[in-house]
Design goal:
- The protein is of the alpha+beta class.
- It has a domain of 65 residues: Roll (Ubiquitin-like (UB roll)).
- It contains two helices and four strands, in the order αβββαβ.
- The longest helix is centred in the C-terminal third of the chain and has 22 residues.
- It is extended, with a radius of gyration of 17 Å.
- The termini are far apart.
């Protein structure tokens, strides 16, 4: 039995490849899963651009990966300015 990692080919459709813009996210969870809604909010309205369901374990790995990448980004480009908290209607919220 080989100890070499298996290579997995991942395909992406043209629609997914284009990506979507989000300037807000809402996060909810149950015992079994986390749900992240990415929204494009342009007051007075907004639209959910994407909804992603994650297991709790995968959510924790995603958070660690995001923190690691933010650190690498700031090491290369400088501290990210989080902006003012004057606009609470735009940003990341938990449900």
């Amino acid at each position: 039995m080989s100890n070499q990692p298996q290579q997995i080919q991942v395909k992406i459709t043209d629609d997914v490849l284009k990506g979507v813009y989000a300037n807000m996210a809402q996060i909810a969870h149950s015992r079994e899963e986390f749900v992240i809604d990415f929204l494009n909010l342009m007051p007075p309205s907004g639209i959910v651009s994407a909804r992603v369901y994650l297991s709790p374990a995968h959510t924790k790995r995603l958070v660690a990966a995001l923190l690691d990448n933010v650190k690498k980004y700031e090491d290369q480009f400088g501290k990210i300015d989080e902006g003012s908290s004057q606009a609470p209607e735009i940003g990341f919220k938990t449900a």
